[in-house]
Amino acid sequence: MRNLRKAAQAAGERRGRPVGDGPSGGRVDLSHPGRSPLGNAVVNCAIYRDGVRQHAAIGPDEAIAHVRKRPGGFVWVGLHEPGEEEFSGVAELFGLHPLAVEDAVHAHQRPKLELYDETLFMVLKTVRYVEHDRLTSTSEVVDTGEVMVFVGKDFVVTVRHGGHGSLGPLREQLEAHPEHLAKGPSAVLHAIADQVVDHYLDVAGAVRDDIDEVEASVFADTRGRRADPGQIYQLKRELLELKRAVAPLDRPLQQLTEAGLPMVDQDIRRYFRDVSDHLTRVSDQVSGYDFLIDSILQANLAQVTVAQNEDMRKITAWAAIIAVPTMVCGVYGMNFQYMPELHWRFGYPLVIGVILTACSLLYRGFRRNGWL
Q1: Which end of the chain is more exposed for a tag (fewer CB within 10 A), N or C?
Q2: What is the pLDDT of residues 119-128, one digit of tens each?
Q3: Please, what are the domains in the chain?
Q4: Which segments does the entry list as coiled coil (predicted)?
């Protein structure tokens, strides 16, 4: 089943309109608070009726008052890293639960879905792949942020934390396809979840490239140079960040596909199943990557152990060879007056010959057995 955003893109292409273009034909970045005339934290606020945006710039209090005077539309308020004082007015205006408000302000939450009276509260972890020229033991690979979504019967409040995961382009995509936005606040929730999970897929693919690079370095013939275990361990830690974002989201998406949440449109519920399928795919990939990195780390440690054993065998072999002249010379170095061959003309050449022959035989034997 195609998800809602892909269906919207296909519909836009059939109408000959570029997907993701706003009314002016260009994409506007609404992610920066400094560009918003609505305040420090409020990025955007608009009324939607029948999927069509009614006002370009209006405050949240005016917007919700306008919608409730004339039912049938909803308000979408977007905020970026609001403080307690900044968010308290919005929370009071929409009747948001204090526990959910605390989570939205302080962030650092696990992905979850909670129902407070008639308001649905969802937390999603956003991820971004951090580009780097070369993976090191301190490289940052996965950067995470958060998006909190409050969904009521006539409003959507989104709170974003982090420097990525902007919802501005997503808002414009939905505004370009009012037939889907007309399904109400749950359509916005689906679009956000779909975008977040799509980013998971992109990041998982990029992380796979790093894993392939590390795997190649471990098994490559580098003539004595071994792969840095710190790189492998750092990649595992960064993969854990992705896993923490992906794994806990499975249950919330399953809940959104089930009946019993009146603020989720029945048609939208079907699209959440598609998002859930994509999440399962990402979760399987991340689990596979985690197992693969463990295997690479074990292989690297095994290589180190084998190399150390080889070094010890070489040292032992050379010590055994050196022991022959040491022993012979030690015997003939004793200061006894009466010793065999001590005054014999051929004594010295014979001893040297015995030493060289014994050392040569030991060297050939160790060489044949792969110790040297």
Answers
A1: N
A2: 999 999 999 9
A3: 4-300 (3.30.460.20), 303-368 (1.20.58.340)
A4: none
